[in-house]
Design goal:
Blueprint lengths: L3 E5 L6 H10 L7 E8 L7 H19 L6 E7 L2 H12 L3 E6 L4 H6 L3 H8 L4 E5 L9 E5 L4 H14 L6 E8 L12 H15 L4 E7 L2 H11 L4 E6 L13 H4 L4 H8 L4 E5 L6
Parallel strand pairs: 1-2, 1-4, 2-3, 4-5, 6-7, 6-9, 7-8, 9-10
Antiparallel strand pairs: 5-10
Helix pairs in contact: 3-5, 8-10
């Protein structure tokens, strides 16, 4: 399923463990890995020294992951990390961007100029965030959010393709209603209908999905289910607004608002794979 993985390596965190785990599951075994390290724009006159040191960082990371030169490419670029990751993702047509995250909240991310938060908000490509404080486990139990939208269907498809060939793998779909809605005369609620369609969609990909319904705050409910199901990976569909005029600017209004995907990014006790609606569909 995945042809090109872009791994933005900072030389620390759990990203390397995550890449090793991804390479162990069928959809990612044949994927080409591009390992990117970005030299800060402030490198100045010591650029060549920075470049040599950075090349050593990515070469060592490649060795720790266990990838050969035939399986992976290393890139060292100078510039703004946030913009460089997005640019390289477009250059190589990445199917998935993998980045580490310190798990900062929205305001902290803005003040610290968080690269992962910026890319998380602006990328139109699937993105996997791995927090530095998480213990990364082998992917067996996958949780996907179900919302009945087109991008939600994309998330279900991707989750199914990830889990279907994993021996003993399981998929849980969770739909969260902000408030209880009385069932119709037939005894079925809108949530039942959304989950039924999701179960059928998963079945069309050869996967049995366990449906769950929760009521309340969406972000908190999803994070609770992550812990209840001991999920190894959570796949979320996001339709959060992105800048339409100036893509070079972070959407501060959205970051300081009530972004469900941002809450899950910070609080879920599992790596988060974000699926956004493709630009052509918007």
């Amino acid at each position: 399923m995945f042809r090109n993985l872009l791994v933005a390596d900072s030389g620390k965190g759990q990203v390397e463990d995550m890449v090793r785990i991804l390479r162990d599951i069928p959809p990612c075994r044949q994927a080409k890995v591009t390992l990117l390290h970005v030299i800060p724009e402030q490198a100045g006159t010591d650029l060549e020294e920075h470049r040599a040191r950075s090349q050593g960082v990515v070469d060592e990371a490649l060795s720790r992951i266990g990838l050969s030169g035939a399986e992976a490419t290393t890139l060292v670029r100078q510039g703004d990390t946030k913009q460089t990751v997005l640019k390289v993702a477009d250059e190589i047509d990445a199917d998935l961007i993998v980045m580490g995250s310190r798990g900062l909240g929205r305001l902290q991310s803005i003040l610290s100029n968080s690269a992962s938060q910026y890319v998380f908000q602006l990328s139109t490509r699937p993105m996997l965030l791995v927090r530095d404080d998480l213990y990364v486990r082998a992917i067996n139990r996958v949780l996907v959010t179900v919302d009945g939208t087109g991008v939600g269907d994309d998330a279900i498809r991707l989750a199914c393709e990830l889990v279907k060939d994993i021996p003993g793998g399981s998929l849980t779909g969770v739909h969260v209603s902000r408030q209880d809605i009385a069932p119709s005369r037939g005894g079925r609620s809108p949530a039942d209908e959304v989950l039924d369609k999701a179960v059928q969609r998963a079945r069309s990909f050869g996967v049995t999905m366990q449906p769950l319904h929760r009521t309340g705050d969406v972000g908190r409910a999803v994070c609770t289910v992550v812990e209840e199901t001991k999920a190894d990976l959570v796949v979320i569909a996001s339709q959060d607004r992105r800048p339409l005029v100036a893509k070079g600017l972070v959407d501060l209004d959205r970051l300081l608002g009530s972004s469900v995907s941002d809450y899950i990014r910070v609080h879920a006790q599992a790596p988060v794979l974000l699926v956004r609606e493709p630009e052509g569909r918007r």
